[in-house]
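Student: Hello, beginner here. Can you help me understand the protein record under this note? Any guidance would be welcome.
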Amino acid sequence: MTQFIDQNRLTIGELARKTGTSVRSIRHYDERGLLVSVRASNGYRIFPNAAVAQVRQIQRMIATGFNLTDIRSFPDCMRMIEGARSCAQTTDVQRKRLGAIERQIADLEHRRARLIKTLVEGTVPPMD
């Protein structure tokens, strides 16, 4: 049964409902050290209310293209505060991620052009 343990703590199910995130994802974030939980006497994970903002912020950063290793390396001010602004310590990582995304886009555009050419000409074009 998922319920509030007290007014300042949430079960994993309650945290999942409040954030729209799966219980599995929350366990994964917790195991990776992105969240802090304690175990209740029944063995269930218990999270502070602040975990709601943390999970939402983690989800935002994932949607921006960062992986959990990147996110874990960010300072607490970026990971712990929902909607936190970027800080100087994360600029290099953000620029590297942007570069990787831009390379992926360029590669996809190149593949798209080759596929269009294949459809128009009816044959696979030679490698560039």
Confidence is low (pLDDT under 50) at residues 1-5. Strands lie at 9-11, 38-39, 45-48. Residues 87-128 form one domain. The chain has two domains: 1-85, 87-128.
